Amino acid sequence: MSNDISPEEKLFNIIKADKSKPRPAAVEVVPAFAFPSWLERFDFKQADKIFLAVLAVLVVLIGVVVFRSPEISIKQIAAMPLDNVPVLNTSPVPAYQPVDVYLAQVKKRDLFHPVLAADGSLVPLGKLTNKDFVLSGIFLGQYPQALIKVVSQDKVYFLKEGDNIEGYKVKSIQKDKVILQQGDEQIELL
User: Fold this and answer.
1) Are the CB atoms for 156 and 176 separated by under 8 Å?
2) Contact at 8 Å (CB) between 56 and 50?
3) Are 153 and 116 in contact (CB under 8 A)?
4) Is 145 in contact with 173 (CB distance < 8 Å)?
């Protein structure tokens, strides 16, 4: 007859049988960590309300400081007395020279590629000569390149047209010579 019972009925019988058995007494679970007594009495909901109130006051104060800061206009600055303003530099401002002096210097050298010596100081225009450069070789191809030695540095540079060497720009590389240019001055290396 036990074979004629459906699984649902078996489950129902097990549940019924468990209700009839006496239950064991509840086991008291003791936590491993006990909170301090004052923390158990602490009202976190009240603390949240206090925190939100303090946060709201801070937001309002920041808003007041940011949006109510006084704006100073140029007219107000000009009207301020200058008796208590410290003077940082008491040396006189050097007099400006006529425009022709500056234009003459612009014509002398290429402003974007100044001539610098090995120590970083400016080299006066015309100081370098053909004896300062030695053409070591020329490579002709789709992009011509030249090997130029700077005698004062004892270094060889591999350059293409448009590159700079000691303040001179490589103007052109031909099969038998290289032309360097600085301003109006040109040097041909053979």
Assistant:
1) no
2) no
3) no
4) yes
- Location of structure tokens 């720009």: 169
Distances (CA, A) of 178 to 27, 110, 153, 166, 170: 101, 19, 19, 15, 7
CA gap 187, 116 in Å, rounded: 17
Amino acid at 44: F
Considering Cα of 53, then 59, then 63, then 65, what sign does the dihedral take?
Answer: positive
Comparing 4-18, 97-111, 141-155, the range with the smallest average pLDDT is: 97-111
pTM reported for the whole predicted model:
0.34
Nearest to 42 by CA among 50, 53, 31: 50
* pLDDT value, residue 95: 75
Q: Which residue has the higher pLDDT, 160 or 121?
A: 160
Residue type, 187: I
Give the residue among 71, 75, 187 at the shortest CA–CA distance from 135: 187
- Check: CB of residue 182 under 8 Å from CB of residue 169: yes
**The pLDDT value given to residue 142:** 84
Residue 152: pLDDT band with limits 50, 70, 90: confident
